[in-house]
Amino acid sequence: MADPCVPLPDARATDALGMRLSSLLRPGDTVLLEGDLGAGKSTLARAVIQTALGSDEPVPSPTFTLTARYDTPGGTIVHADLYRLSGPEDVEETGLADDFAEAVTLVEWPDRLGDLRPRDALTIVLETEGEGRRATLRASGPRSTALRAAVTMPRDMQLSAFLAVSGFDGPVPVPGDASNRRYFHVGPHIAMDAPHAKGEDVRPFVAVTDMLRGRGLSAPALLAQDIPNGFLLLENLGTGLFARLCEADPGQEAALYAAAVDLLHGLAARPGDAVPPYDLAVMEREAMLLTDWWCPAAGVAVSDDLRAEWAGAMRTDLAEVAAARSALVLRDYHAENLLWLPQRDGDARVGLLDYQDALVGHPAYDLVSLLEDARRDVSPGLAEAMVARFLTRRPDLDGAAFRRDYDALGAQRNAKIVGIFARLCMRDGKPRYLEMIPRVWAHLMRDLSGDGTPGMRTFIERHVPAPTGALLARIAAEHGR
Q1: Residue 322: what are its φ and ψ, rounded to 5°?
Q2: Model confidence, pTM
Q3: What does the pLDDT read at residue 169?
Q4: Domain boundaries, given as residue ranges, for the chain
């Protein structure tokens, strides 16, 4: 049987292979890393070590020290780079051979081992393939054969193995998600599959879950987790999505939105909140999606000068609001990510989903996210009542200034969303997201109508086409798959 090959099209795929390997290695395992200079041996070894340490701290290459030792919760890892050695006589002087039986050993340039090479070792040969790499896995004994099989196990089988440890099988897919995450019904619970190779990372979700539950809020309980491989087993908060409840009984809408607004006061930033800032650089990077995806889709030739003009407008209009960071901002706080839990008390009646991208930012951001919903209409009267309700609980805020900030954040958010929905169509073949752009555009026009975003308003009026029905139909025909 041919040795299996794993395609590694980018750095994230290489990291994902290292994370998977790290979760499987045990003391006594040896991994021999072969490949030319620059093939990715140190990158792969670094991912293995950082995963075992549970840290993203830099892991230096042992090119000059020859070996480096790391004490991890699962045992000692020895990383060896034998490039500067000439053969097994030199290797013996390092004491590496003594580590093969007791530690996990990662060996670069293993040809220098000669007859010191372990009889049972997993060899990973890294080679350039296109703009990325490929890894060929070779086994030389029973343990390395089992290790190779586990490393190359298909993703669905990995999920099943993770669930089996908790006594569950037969995951049933939950339809729909704009990301690369997948969700499954598993008995009474929910499983999340978030593959690192596709840009996902469960660590922020776990960290923010702990923060929210520490505030007494209803983020789902974490029942089981496999961080390196991107699997979580979660409490199922039920089916009472705000969006569905409002559709079934519009009379509930005001009370549900009031509860969601009141919860925002429990998200004041705390010193221990270990999430990044929602600063001007992040806001600018996000809103560049408008010129990077919507403008080309609409037929606009986007030059470097045009991008610079848009970036400059944002820096001018958003500088003050981006500096006012006093809240834990969940960022996708809207009716499709909120669940009604009437059996609970106070703010815990609002169940929370999809908060893994939380940052510390302006307290108006999640209010904008709630009231300028991309997926459902919120009446102007209800929106105004909810802004007033929020301000009633915050007498420390200047109402006029807060509303200007609200509009500025809405402009940034909705410009970003127009770009995201265009990208989902053009890159990912999901034209259904185009149907929501007119609603988002209407939010954007409202946000730009005040006096807080003159630069952004002028840019969009001059350069950005409105999403007419004819334009959206053309984009769907050209890019929808």
Answers
A1: -70, -25
A2: 0.88
A3: 86
A4: 5-152, 156-234, 242-479
